[in-house]
Specification:
The chain is of the alpha+beta class. The protein is 35% helix and 24% strand. It has 18 helices and 19 strands. The N and C termini lie far apart (56 Å).
Amino acid sequence: MLLADLAATSERVAATRSRLAKRAALAGLLRRATPDELPVVARYLAGELRQRRTGLGRRSLAAMPPPAAEATLDVLAVDAAFERMAALAGPGSATARAALARDLFAAATEPEQRLLAGLVTGELRQGALDALLLDAVAEAAGVPAEEVRRAAMLAGATEPVAVAALGAADPAGARAALAAFGLTVGRPVRPMLAASAPDVATAVAGFGGRPVVVDAKLDGIRIQVHRARDDVRVFTRSLDDVTARVPEVAAVVRALPASSLVLDGEALAVGPDGRPRPFQETASRSATRDAELAAARLAPFFFDVLHVDGRDLLDAPLAARLAELERVVPPAHQVARVVTDDPAVAADAFARWVAEGQEGVVVKDAAAPYEAGRRGAAWVKVKPRHTLDLVVLAVERGSGRRRGYLSNIHLGARDPAGGFVMLGKTFKGMTDEMLAWQTRRFRELEVADDGWTVTLRPEQVVEVAFDGLQRSSRYPGGVALRFARVLRYRDDKTAAEADTIDAVRALAPPVS
């Protein structure tokens, strides 16, 4: 298959808001792919390269050659080129990687270059998320979508499921191939995800007055732990194996009274006072040389169990899974929870846990099975929402669906001593109307343009929401916003009225 065919499909998907039209376009291309091509095609349609790291980024693409006049690249050759880039290491690797990238982009037509740039930067933004791609696999194979989603959950990836379903001779064969995917201890499954609600009362009301499970939402790293006798494997939310970096977690699970287990939970760095450490300390503790941080204890806290001693529990209701969890995991390694039908009780738990340094709560349907890979209504997370009025310092050109717009904004807080302090970037929360407006507005404020980033006069105030702050050595203020998203542009405020860096730092978690 030519990369041009994939690029054309990607642009058709980006050009429509219709989920049915997107699914039909994806399914049509999947039907045309050979078994060898399917893993690459499926991953590219989901907006990702198969290689986790290629060494390329936005800056690498700033001086690419002009596009080719004729489409000649095929998808397997492109995947092989990125594989060669990913394998490069040591002296001279940057030069060799740049040469490979230039050769690849020189052979690509303009639509193919747009596709490749979107894949490299992770900003394809064509509206073809993994859940939609799974629905397209189901349509192409003529099988129920829920069977494809379940197989992908158990396989931990879309590509093998697409190959199994589309490689069958007929829908009956596809269903049989999908049914062959089962839970295997030692192979991670896709984690169940939570939708969001603005407050606890709304989340609880969504369950119609039934009792709900309210779990503390820890500000740690999602982990899935598999145990087969003495062999314990620890996987992250993205299904990476991190066992060697978290020996304390493996030791805790190895000591539990079960010979085979699959547990879902969080790993959290805990200080000497028992309070949680900031998120990035949990994320980097195993690699740090900071003595104080290294002394923080990394502890697992589990909130679900998917398998115990040969029994798969995925289809059991949450209440039954929690009974098993309480049987095999001691309270010290369980997430705090309450079961209630009273919104006031749930709100009190939320306030208490947030005051203790946790991230919020997850409100769960006690009767729901474990369903992975999409944000359904069975789990609903609630977190405190913080907002700031900041100043836009610069903006980057968009790619993919946002090509032609100025998109990713650089956010700065006001320094009372003069100037502004950068806190991070975001392209989240922007509507099409907002993108069009800010592209015009920021050209009025432009003071420099290096071909990728447009530097601005610091005048435009923007209100952003964010989930929290973390310490950062990347930004001069020492802190960075987590999950910032645009709420609105504030034409009623001047830059002199923006929030100060001191006010921002006051929101940061204390250093214990």
